[in-house]
Design goal:
This protein has about 400 residues and is mainly α. The chain contains 18 helices and three strands. It has two domains: about 150 residues, Receptor-associated Protein; about 250 residues, no CATH class. Helix content is about 75%, strand content about 5%. The chain has a three-stranded antiparallel sheet with strand order 2-1-3. A hairpin with a 5-residue loop joins strand 1 and strand 2. Helix 6 runs antiparallel to helix 7, helix 7 packs antiparallel against helix 8 and helix 16 runs antiparallel to helix 17.
Length: about 400
């Protein structure tokens, strides 16, 4: 059963709109006819299929969303009417969830709703900045340009996300292989030597006794340990859902050496990119700052930006209060100050985001270049320790056999 948004006319020519649940579009049309209405159109707009489904689609759907918005911007710039441009986009979208979501946008636009409102109604599909930029484009008559900037921002955000994910694939695979090798040795290799050492276990070297005890414990209580790990992860997730705990964790992360500055630069880049796009799109700075705050995932930094936004609405400045928080890189403060002084804040924010993106990529690559050999050395040391513990016992086996 899906939900359909319909338009129909009464016998007197009066237009009616609404939603109906049915198994197909034909079923909706039949029900409207039985009610004495003349169906005009019926479009599936089930939230579970459109917005939520598209939002859960991962990187492929995020990229498809950016492509669809970019195509819509090109069509509008070429002079097509909004509803016709949306119809062309719907035809070209391959993902079912995203296709249904854009069909819902088209239906709302046909009903007379502005695109910004239709975007806001698609909960979970568009980022917070999308409806604001669309509204700014509608206000100044440059919707195509506003959507083009939105598509570019989404493209850059997805490119950075893919760079980070791709960089972490090899270390993650290496860590999994290393863990698998160590578990294989503890579960299957080490037990082969227990019978050999069973008569003189108390006289074995300390490392060998520790190794055998670890192997026994893992085989006897491994499932309980795995269950405990799952429970711990679940408890941690529930713990992090508490706003106070999440705020404390995010504040602590920013204090970590190497990691803290990297997180601050990455969050500042996302914030600057969003704020610059909104300012260039004509969104008033206080509103733009409040929206850009939602692009920051670190709650401690987001709370600081929110305080600055409140102060800005009361007549305060931007650069000074942000610098006073002590959370943003000095480079960011310098760019912001230059943008305010030259009245080119949007341009300086975009350049700041570019610079920080490059810095984040370089820092991540440097960190991963250190992480990969560290995992390799750790795995080699663990395997070598296991082998050395067994070999030391075997080499001293004759002494153990001769000892009283």
């Amino acid at each position: 059963m899906a939900s359909f948004r319909y338009r129909a006319a009464t016998a007197a020519g009066e237009l009616r709109t609404g939603t109906l649940d049915a198994s197909s579009r034909e079923g909706v049309i039949e029900r409207l006819r039985r009610q004495g209405l003349r169906p005009i159109d019926a479009v599936e707009t089930s939230p579970a299929v459109s917005a939520a489904g598209a939002a859960r689609g991962g990187g492929a759907n995020r990229q498809a969303l950016a492509n669809a918005i970019g195509e819509l911007a090109v069509l509008l710039t070429a002079g097509l009417a909004l509803d016709r441009a949306l119809a062309v986009c719907v035809q070209n979208i391959a993902q079912p969830g995203l296709k249904s979501a854009f069909a819902g946008l088209q239906a709302r636009v046909k009903e007379g709703a502005p695109l910004s409102l239709a975007m806001a109604e698609q909960k979970g599909l568009f980022p917070p900045m999308a409806s604001a930029m669309a509204e700014a484009g509608e206000a100044n008559g440059k919707l195509g340009e506003a959507l083009a900037r939105l598509a570019e921002s989404l493209d850059r955000a997805e490119a950075l996300r893919q760079t980070v994910v791709s960089s972490l694939v090899y270390p993650a695979m290496l860590a999994v292989v290393a863990t698998g090798v160590i578990l294989l040795m503890l579960l299957f290799v080490v037990p082969q030597f227990e019978g050999l050492f069973s008569d003189a276990r108390d006289k074995l070297p300390f490392p060998t006794r520790v190794l055998l005890a670890t192997s026994d414990g893992l085989r006897s209580y491994g499932w309980f340990g795995a269950l405990g790990l799952v429970v711990a992860v679940f408890a941690l997730r529930q713990w992090l859902r508490s706003p106070g705990m999440r705020l404390a964790l995010d504040r602590w992360v920013l204090t970590l050496p190497q990691i803290g500055p990297l997180v601050a630069r990455a969050e500042t880049a996302a914030f600057a990119r969003t704020l610059g796009s909104l300012v260039d799109g004509g969104v008033p700075l206080p509103q733009a700052l409040a929206i850009a705050r939602r692009s920051v995932s670190n709650t401690h930094m987001a709370a600081a930006i929110e305080r600055v936004a409140v102060g800005l609405k009361r007549g305060g400045g931007l650069t000074g209060p942000l610098a006073a928080t002590g959370l943003f890189p000095p480079m960011a403060i310098s760019f912001l100050r230059t943008g305010e002084e030259t009245a080119r804040l949007g341009l300086m924010l975009a350049r700041l985001a570019d610079v920080l993106d490059r810095n984040v990529r370089t820092a991540i690559q440097r960190l991963i270049s250190l992480l990969t050999p560290a995992i390799t050395v750790t795995m080699a040391a663990a395997v070598a320790s296991i082998i050395a513990s067994i070999m030391s016992a075997i080499i001293g086996f004759n002494d153990l056999a001769l000892s009283p």
